[in-house]
Each structure stands twice: as structure tokens, then as C-alpha cells.
Amino acid sequence: MRLAPRRTSLEDAIRVLLVVTIVLVALGSNWSPSVRSVAQPLWRVSLAALFAASVMYAVRSASGRRLWERSQSAVYPATLAFLAVAAVSTLWSADPRLTFERGASFALVLGSAAALALASAGDAGRVERLLAALAAGAGAVALLGLVVLVITPHHALQAATQTIPSRYRGIGQNPNTTAMLFAVALPLVTWLALTSEGRRRLVTWGALALLAGSIVGSGSRGAFATAAVGALIVAVASVATTRGRVLAAATVSAALAASLGLGAIPSPDPNATDVTNTACVDCKHNPYNVDQYFRIDDEVGNQDGGRNRTFFASTGRTQAWSGAIRQGEQRPLLGYGFGTEDHVFVDRFPLFFGGSAENSYVGIFLQLGLVGVLLLGAVAIALLGGCLRAFRRLGGVDRRAAAACTAALLAGLALALVQSYLYAVGNTATLTVWMCAFLGAALGPKAVAA
After folding, report:
1. Which end of the chain is more exposed for a tag (fewer CB within 10 A), N or C?
2. Residue 111 burial (10 A CB sphere; 0-12, 13-18, 19+)
3. CA–CA separation, 347 and 148 (whole Å)
């Protein structure tokens, strides 16, 4: 008995793996090719270890019959159906090997989240400890970015151009990279800040300020808007009286207004020699993308290329979405294969700069057609329903945890409107979003004996 591994030890290992995986994925999207070359293989190993530990944790947490009973939810068959279609899409994929590899990685993410949800069903304490680990992972990424800003600010900041002000990117490859992680993690950190006491409260409030400041500095509009909504949901759900809710909403609104003001301070540099970022020299997988050779925004005679970037200015995403949908209509039912979005999408739009459609729903239409859109929607709706049931059933601190999961999922689904990431395991926000969704749904059932 003394030699038998304790469940708490395994849980601690999982919490460490969550933090390590989040940090390694962020480093895998670093501005340095040398860092990326080391971090990308490591996060794959870490993710595989997380999956193995999560499955072991589920097996040890309850009997087979109990796990089967816990799995009687629409979430799990919908998830299996989506993964099955993603796997079978290798048969018609534009790049079968890529589809297999990315499908396997995504299966590890969803499998880990599902296993932890099955292990934690109805156990609020267990869920909250895992959520705290997710928040710690985002905090560690933000702290690393701050360290880089202090030591080598030219790496942490994207230089201003004639049309775009300087933007904070921390350890990310571009200003949007880590801002996405911070946006979906902010509801978790807000929940911890509102429920912590003593020294831990100082730490969580400091983390909240660090994540919010990093988002504002990045100038990422999608991250800014979704993070604000997520924090607002948690703040309002954390109080029981109408007066308290009004005060919480007013506080978040005031912070939002102050952040907008701070975000408007940086301005483009009229003396900059480069008018935009350089062309996508690493996009060799798609020889038809002209941005690989020259950014078409800078083409002589382009009347839209010199427009200054503001909070409400268009960046050409609607053009890209329209073009991607037209391309997807050539394979409307089953698409071009899971994971092939950045290999089949071609940027032909002067205002847009990107290797994907920058919309997860349009992106999954390109990859798996209408079938994929419906299945992904079914998974999201089932998970959101589970989070809402948990919020209605629970009270006190546990209710706030359910609110944080619901807010993180809603922020993630909203962010998917402007970013192609829900299915991209190498994205910094993907693991956190799905973990929050499954763990939030796990709070719904009442605790039962193993």
C-alpha cells in the first residue's frame, strides 16, 4: 500500500503538466526560430504525457461502471463523432499525412480534457484545482513576456511602422499569439482574484493586472473584446444582489474604458522605413500565396494599404472569409481534410495578411465542410449546456468556478470568429479553452461514489 501511487500525486503531476504544456506551446510560437525548433517537439511530448496521465487519473478515480454512467452525456458522443470524421478525412485530404498528424494532436487535447472531466465529475474541489493550474500556465506565459520586455524590449515589442503603432508581443511570434491565451484565461484569473484570500489574493490580483495589461499592450482587438466580456460575466456572477451586480458591471466598464484610452496612446511612426511587416517568408507550403514573396498591401497603387490601423478599422478579414467560403463551396460537404486550412487557403486580398481564414467556423468549413461545422457546433453547444447547468445547480465559490468556465468558453467561441484556432493544437489558447469547457461541464452532475 505504501508503494502504490496516490491519486493526489497523480493529480499534482497533471497540474504541473498543464502548466508546462501551456508554456511550451507558447514558446513553440515564439519569435525566435531557434526557440520554436526546441519547444515544438517538447510540447508534443508534454501533451502526450498529459493525455496518458489524464486517462490513468480517470481510471483510478472511479470504477468502469461509474465512468460509463458519467459519460452518458451528449458531450462525449458528439466529440467522438467529430474526431471520427477528422480521422476519416485522411481519405480525401489534400495532405493526408498532415491531416493524420493534426487530427492525432487534437484528439490528445480533447481526450485529455474528457478524461479529466470524467475523473472530476461532480467534484468541485478537483475541478477548481485543475482550473487554477490552467490560470497558472497563462500567468507563467505572461510573466515570461514581461521578463523579455525588461531584458530585451526590442524582442518583446513589434516595432511601429508608418501605418501600425508599436505593439506588445511578449514571447509570442506576433502580438495576437499570446493575447489569445490571456483572453480565454482572464475569466479564470478574475475568478481566482475574487475568491482568494491573504497573500494568494495579492498574487492573483497581480496576475490579473499582468494579463489585462498584456492584452491592452498587444492591441489585439479580438482578445481585448472577448477578455472584457469574460471578466464581466465572472464579476457579475460573483455577487448575489442587484446592487452588487450593477457595481461589478460599472467597475469592469470603467476598467474597459481606461484600457481603451491606454490602447489608443501608441501611434504609427511616420519616419519608419518599413511600412508593414515583412512578407511571410516561411509560408513555403503554399506557393500560390503572393505574400510569400511580397505583401500585396504594399503594392504600388493600392489605395487601402496606407490606411492607419485603429481599433475599429478593417483588416480585411471579411474579404478573407468571403473568399474562403467560396473556396469551400467547391467541396461543401466534407472539405479538404482536417488540418489543411493553412495549406489550401490562399490570401488574395489587399487588406488581409494571414495564412488562414482567421475564423474557426469558416476554417472548419474549409477542412470538413458542412459536416464538420455541424459536428463542431454540436460539441460546443453540448459543452456550453453542461457549463450552464453547473452554474444553475451550484452555489457559493463553486458557482463562481462554473461561471469562470462558462465565461472562458464563451470568450473562446467568440474569439473563434476572428481567429482560426479552436482545432489548432499549436495555438496558445486551444488547450485552455477545451479544458475549461470540459471541466465546467464536469461540475454539473452531483458527486457520486466511485
Report:
1. N
2. middle
3. 32
Tell me how far apart the alpha carbons of residues 184 and 135 are, in angstroms, rounded to a whole number: 10
3-state secondary structure 221-254: HHHHHHHHHHHHHHHHHCCCCHHHHHHHHHHHHH
Locus of grid cell 479529466: 116
280: in domain? no
- Which DSSP symbol is given to 307? P
For 99, list phi and psi in degrees, rounded to 5: -60, -45
What 3-state class would DSSP assign to 92? coil
265 Cβ contact list (under 8 Å, min separation 6): none
Provide the β-strand partners of residue 7: none
Cell 472569409 maps to which residue? 321
Place of cell 515544438: 40
Strands 167-168 and 157-158: antiparallel
Task: Give 379's DSSP letter.
Answer: H
Exposure of 411 in the CB half-sphere (CA atoms within 13 A):
35
Separation of alpha carbons 316 and 335, rounded Å: 23
Q: Take residue 271 and report the three cell numbers written for it.
A: 519616419
Q: What is the pLDDT of residue 323?
A: 84
- What is the dihedral sign for C-alpha 385, 391, 394, 397? positive
Domain residue limits at 247? 64-267+359-442
Full-model pTM = 0.87
Is residue 22 included in any domain, yes or no? no
In a domain, 177, yes or no: yes
What are the CA-CA distances from residue 258 to residues 115, 139, 255, 388 (Å)?
A: 41, 22, 5, 31
Asked whether residue 312 carries a pLDDT value surpassing 50, the answer given is no
Q: How far apart, in whole angstroms, are the C-alpha atoms of residue 41 and residue 35?
A: 11
Cell numbers for 215, please give them: 492584452
Q: How many domains is the chain built from?
A: 1
pLDDT for 389-423, tens place per residue?
999 888 777 888 999 999 999 999 999 998 999 99
Cell of 246: 450593477
